Structure formats: C-alpha cells, structure tokens
Amino acid sequence: MIRRGFWLVLGAVLGVSGYRKLTRTAKALLPHGELVSQLHGRTRVAGSGRRAGSGTIAFVRDVRTGMADYLDRHREI
Q1: Contact in structure between 76 and 66 (CB atoms under 8 Å)
Q2: 33, 47 in Cβ contact below 8 A?
Q3: Per residue of the chain (77 residues), what is the pLDDT tens digit?
Q4: 20: Cβ contacts below 8 Å, ≥ 6 apart
C-alpha cells in the first residue's frame, strides 16, 4: 500500500512539473508571448488583455448567485 502511494505521489509531482515546464517552454518559443491553449480545446490567446483572475471572479459570482437561489428555495419548505 505504501508503494502505491509513493508511485501515485511521484506521478502527480512529475506530471505537474512536466506540464509547467512544457507551458513555460511554449511561451518562450511563441512570438510575443502569445500562447493559444489547444490542449483544452480553447482558442483564447494569453496576451489578449483579459485579467488573469476574471474567469475565477465570474465563476465565484455564479456560485454565490446559485447558492443564494438554492437557500431561498429551501427556506420556503
């Protein structure tokens, strides 16, 4: 069991570090720092002027709205 945990942790560490290294290399090789993320099927260019956390902010806002709706519906019961 300990061996399996060791290999799981080792695989996770190597996967994350490899992904970061690949991303860093791709950003360095592409002109003007434009990185088109095709790994996840996205076509957004990294240098497009959007704030880095704008997607996260929108997600948190949607979650809060959804939770408020949920709590409103369940208070009536």
Answers
A1: no
A2: yes
A3: 789 999 999 999 999 999 999 888 887 787 654 555 544 455 555 555 556 677 888 888 899 999 999 998 888 66
A4: none
Q: How far is the first Cα of the chain from the last one, in angstroms, to the nearest whole number? A: 47
Q: Do 25 and 18 meet the contact criterion of CB atoms below 8 Å apart?
A: no
d(CA 2, CA 8): 10
Q: How many helices (H) and strands (E) does the chain have?
A: 2, 0
pTM for the predicted model, two decimal places: 0.39
Q: d(Cα 16, Cα 21) in Å, to the nearest integer? A: 9
Q: In angstroms, rounded to a whole number, what is the distance separating the alpha carbons of residues 76 and 31? A: 57
Beta strands in 14-58 (DSSP E): none
Structure tokens at 16: 């994350």
